[in-house]
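User: Teach me something about this protein's shape.
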Amino acid sequence: MSEIQKKSTARAPFNNPDHDIVLRSVDGVDFHNFKLILSLVSPIFKDMFTLPQHESEPAVPVIPVAEHSTILYPLLLLSYPASGADPTFGTIDDARAVVEAAQKYEMDAILYRIGDLIVAHFLLARPLDVYAISCLTGWKHHARTAASRSLEIEGLVRPNSGFAASGMGAINASDYQRLLTYHYECGIAAQAVGKALEWLPSTPEISGMQMWGCIGCGRVAIGRRAIQIASFGKWTVTPWFEEYLDASGKELAARPCERTLLESASYNRAIAKARECLFCRIVVVHHHLHTFRTFYIAEVRKAIEKVELAP
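Assistant: First, the predicted structure itself:
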């Protein structure tokens, strides 16, 4: 036996001297456990323990398993009563392996808890991985959460060589199509928000905003469309604001999330264009546009939340 394969005992809580069963990982780590606990969480182990034991076998049976200790530890920790801590996963591949092990041993009671931990650990940085694992495992709620987070990925609907590396290569065409359709429909919904502004509150602050109240650049209405503003009716907006709505709408269609509006190049262009108008410049249009963007973001969020990921 090589140095790597020499036996050792797992860390707490799997070093209990009163154990009645040992699970030995593929890398030679012994996990002290109890038949009753394993039988309650896994019908596979329950059936295994009902097999007759030969007289030559040790008093405490040792069962070799195919999993590495880094996979076995979080799997068993989730099955252990009052362990006092949630396991962590070193990588998304480790997390995927824990899911596969839980499925192998039919540990249905802990599978969704593993999903919660995967979302907590990897959703922000690896939404496509979380989506793929969720689809393969049947976690509909987690798949929806991951799909929503993936809206922040620019160019998601274009061919992407990183998909296979992210685990997306393991899902079927239907799940892949669901994600792309969801992204497209969210883009359509988000882009539509800026085409009519009836969702703005009907307050004096809104009615007095410079974008549709400018006596300089806003007076030239020829060739420009009128836009519904709150409940005030259709008003002609300034050229720079109309351009902002059109440009930000296209940005949202490609990347339908609130970060798009916060990071939008069209926002800075609108500020620069507004400065070219004496009246827009002197009434602190920055404040008006910032206020509008706050409402804009909230309405885009509402529009996206109404889009369903197909079952």
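Now, about its shape. The chain has a mean pLDDT of 87. The beta strands are 8-9, 21-24, 29-33, 62-64, 226-228, 234-236. If you'd like, I can walk through any region in more detail.
User: That's plenty for now, thanks!
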